[in-house]
Amino acid sequence: MRSKRFLVASLVVLFACKPPTPAEQLDSALSWVATARMAGDAWLQHTTPDKYTRQTLELSQQTLLQLGTKLLKSPVPGVDSASLDSLLTRSRGHIAQMAALVTAKNSPGFRQQLDSLISDETLVKQFADSAESKQ
Amino acid sequence: MKLVRDVLDKKLTDREDCEMGRVSGLVMQVGERSQPRITHILVGGKTLWMRIHPWIARVAARLSRMWGPKRDEPVRIPWSRVESVGKDVKLDVKARDTGALDWELWVAKHIIERIPGGGKQEEE
Amino acid sequence: MKKILQLTLGIITSVGGFLEIGSVVTAAQAGANYGYKLLWAILLGTICLIFLVEMSGRLAAVSKHTIVDATRERFGFPFFSIVMLGIVAVAFLVLVAELGGIGLALQILSGIGFRWWAIPVSIIVWLLMWKGTFGVIENGASLLGLVTISFAVAAVKMHPDWGGAAHGLLPTMPGDGKAKYGFTAVSILGASISPYLMYFYSSGAIEDKWDESYIPMNRIIAGFGMTFGGFLSMAVLVAAALSLQPRGIDIEKFEQAALLMTPALTRWGFYLFAFSMLFACLGAALEISLAIAYFFAQGLGWSWSEDLDPSRDSRFAFTYTIIILLGAIPLLLGIDPIKVTMMSMALTSATLPLAIVPFLFLMNDSIYLGKHRNGWLSNSVVAIVILISFVLAIISIPLEIIGG
Fold first, then answer.
1. Taking a C-beta distance cutoff of 8 angstroms, is the pair A113, A101 a contact?
2. A21-133 has which CATH code?
3. Which among C130, C315, C368 is the nearest to B117, CB-wise?
4. What is the rounded CA–CA span in Å between residue C376 and residue C215?
5. Smallest Cα–Cα separation from C338: which of C258, C266, C245, C234?
């Protein structure tokens, strides 16, 4: 009985530390682009404070960088990894700009970058959808 | 009286209803022709750890030689001092006199009272 | 009148035990990933918890012994030490998560990273226990915890699909991704049914000097208190289903959760979330530290009470001091509290039988409860839910590891 519980507990730990699959990483990338967008929208409406917005945008950017590297190494089956990579790089660029514009309190410039990010988000979603349909 | 079930691991309280730990072990006397009977209650010390594994008892003994009240042997309380056995075991003793609170007093004096706001143990 | 004020014990147990970083994060993830589909897991956890908490209070009120007291006395020290090891280890992980939760809430409010908050937060939690009495902690945490009602306000304001939500109260299986769904359900159950809650509540009943006359009130407190927490957890799930799922946002970091109530309550939503997490995690940190210290003190026969000066229960005070200090260390090292949360919730589910099975035996023991022993309903509900948790844990976890 004791050893069974220990086994279960180790399985739990193993699972919690399990690395995500490429498809999951793509979903995660979409989630982070969406996060940056939601935070951006919120900032423009004066819902979120500057510091939090900037830090969240920076966090999105860093996470997308890590995910992009991993996706390049182990691509999602059926997805053109080169196109996906340049798309993610472009998104990161927009997000980085947005973070800087928060500090500068430049709303019109921020709006522009956000709009570009929204278009990118649609494209990332298409990648994610096509990956899911091929599973 | 099913000794093991009724006495072992029960809470001990003294004359003034002060909590003084739990029964870690029992000392029994086995006669040739008579029933085995309890002579002493043991509190704390290596008795408790021995019930899990002797190795743990050795580690505990080594640690207690470095810190805490320098007490090697568990506290022995004669069975004659037991007033009643119910949900708790009531003893006709004063907790501080038995040595059962040695660790509590040591931690209070050497650690807790040195921190601001810790208060003070009552003076005898 | 005094008995009604005891509702605060129910509320703090609920807010600190039920609504804390684990249940908020798991409920939000469930809503973000599966919409209303996992509401049944929260419902199941809540029902089980109501029974467990009622039992904890009843045991203390009738026998004047806590669960820990009774476990050692009835099962002996060797078995007790195994239970203690398992429960305390997992509870400690949850404590780290809660201290991290306070730090994360302060991080999103101030912009200063949670690592910097690890020490100040630990000191404050420790100070509250060092100088505070049980009543102060109980009432203070309950009062502050009421800010979590904002979760319900936000959820309602977003006009949920009540029909869809009602459907979610019945268990369903998703089309694919069954293993991850199962794992999320397991985490919700582990987040809801936390053993430290029971130990805290039964000790609280002793601290508040309950006797047999409190049995009816105990039922109300357990029922009301846990329903309060469960209801708010469901509100978090619904809010996430409405604000995060449509946007395709999964919650991997706390920063994402902070946006939960912004569509509904704009700027208020942001700050209410932060303060809700702050106070809920604070209540939980206090509760868990006390629960662990109670475990040691009651199990080993030391004197214990939050109402005593620390020097009068020195080993008890020393224990919670060390625990809080140790709890800060992983955070200082920068370990992500969200990851600790996810792991500890699933571990709680897997180790539930260790706490509940001996407890069920005790609740049927006439020496401790006399005529107030468990009826068939209490026994059945608890046994079934624990079985479900455990089975779900051992099925979904290997599946997720192998199949993924």
1. yes
2. 1.20.120
3. C130
4. 18
5. C258
CB count in 10 Å sphere of residue C127:
12
At the fourth CATH level, which superfamily is domain B3-44+75-114? PRC-barrel domain (2.30.30.240)
Check if the beta carbon of residue C207 is closer than 8 Å to that of residue C13: no
Predicted model pTM: 0.91
B–C interface: beta-carbon pairs under 8 A = 75
Query: What residue spans of chain B are helical by DSSP H?
Result: 3-7, 46-50, 54-66, 95-98, 102-110
**H or E element that contains A27:** helix A22-44
Residue type, C245: Q
Decide: C379 and C360 in contact? Cβ < 8 Å.
yes
User: Within its chain, how far is the Cα of C50 from the centroid?
Assistant: 12
Instruction: Evaluate whether B103 touches B69 at the Cβ level (below 8 Å).
Output: yes
Give strand pairing partners of B29. B37
Where are the domains positioned within chain A?
Answer: 21-133
Q: How far is the alpha carbon of A31 from chain C, nearest alpha carbon, in Å?
A: 4
> What tokens appear for C49 in the block?
């918890």
Domains recognised in chain C with CATH numbers: 2-403 (1.20.1740.10)
C partners (3+ CB pairs within 8 A) are: A, B
Instruction: For residue C107, give the chain A residue with the closest CA.
Output: A52
Query: What are the pLDDT digits (tens) for C347-395?
Result: 888 888 888 889 999 999 988 898 999 999 989 988 887 788 778 777 7
Touch of A by C (3+ CB pairs closer than 8 Å): yes
Question: pLDDT per residue over A36-81, tens digit each?
Answer: 999 999 999 999 999 999 999 999 999 999 999 999 988 888 888 8
Q: Do A15 and C400 touch (CB under 8 A)?
A: yes
A17: which chain C residues are within 8 Å (Cβ-Cβ)? Answer: 343
Per the CB < 8 A criterion, the answer to whether B41 and B76 are in contact is yes
Cα–Cα distance for residue pair A128/C21, rounded to 1 Å: 30
Convert C21-59 to b/e letters by CB count within 10 Å (16 or more is b): bbbbbbbbbbbbbbbbbbbbbbbbbbbbbbbbbbbbbbb
Q: What are the pLDDT digits (tens) for C57-86? A: 999 999 999 999 999 999 989 999 999 999
Strand pairing category for B89-91 and B11-13: parallel
Tokens at residue C124, please?
Answer: 């404050």
